[in-house]
Each structure stands twice: as structure tokens, then as C-alpha cells.
Amino acid sequence: MAEFETVKTEIVEFGRNNFIEVARKKAITTDGEKEFISVSRGYYMDDNSKRWKSSITLPDDSDKREKIAEWIKKL
């Protein structure tokens, strides 16, 4: 079983109550620790709590992250 720790988070709000959260997270298991990037879309509830709709995980590999960023900029 893994525990997850959020190392750093950035949030971009859009629309009436939506947000994109980009976070560096750490999975901690008995085998060790591994960092990854999580990109999640969510929304705020009436009580201002957060709910998430979907997310993707990106590897902690700078070459792959740069390539993905390049593709996003081209769209």
C-alpha cells in the first residue's frame, strides 16, 4: 500500500467554479519513494471544498515533461 505526499501544488482557476491543479507528488511504499507529476481537473462545491473530476499522471522525467509541454504549446 502506498502513501502519497504532495510536495508542491499550483492551481489555475477558470470558468465559474472550475480549476486545474498541477502538483508534484511523492508515492511512498515499502520499496522506496517515487516522485511524479499529477494534472487534475476539478471544481469547487458550494462550501468551497474541492472535488476532482479526472486526472493524469506524468513521469518525473524532464525530457518527457518538456516534450509534453511543447505539444501543449503547439495546440
Which helices and strands appear, and what pairs or packs with what?
Layout: E1 3-14, E2 18-29, E3 32-44, E4 50-59, H1 62-74
Antiparallel strand pairs: 1-2, 2-3, 3-4
Provide structural commentary.
With 75 residues, this protein is of the alpha+beta class. The protein has one domain. The chain has one helix and four strands, in the order ββββα. It has a four-stranded antiparallel sheet with strand order 1-2-3-4, covered by helices on one side. A hairpin with a 3-residue loop joins strand 1 and strand 2. The model has no long low-confidence stretch (mean pLDDT 94).
Short summary:
The protein is of the alpha+beta class and 75 residues long.
Keyword list:
alpha+beta
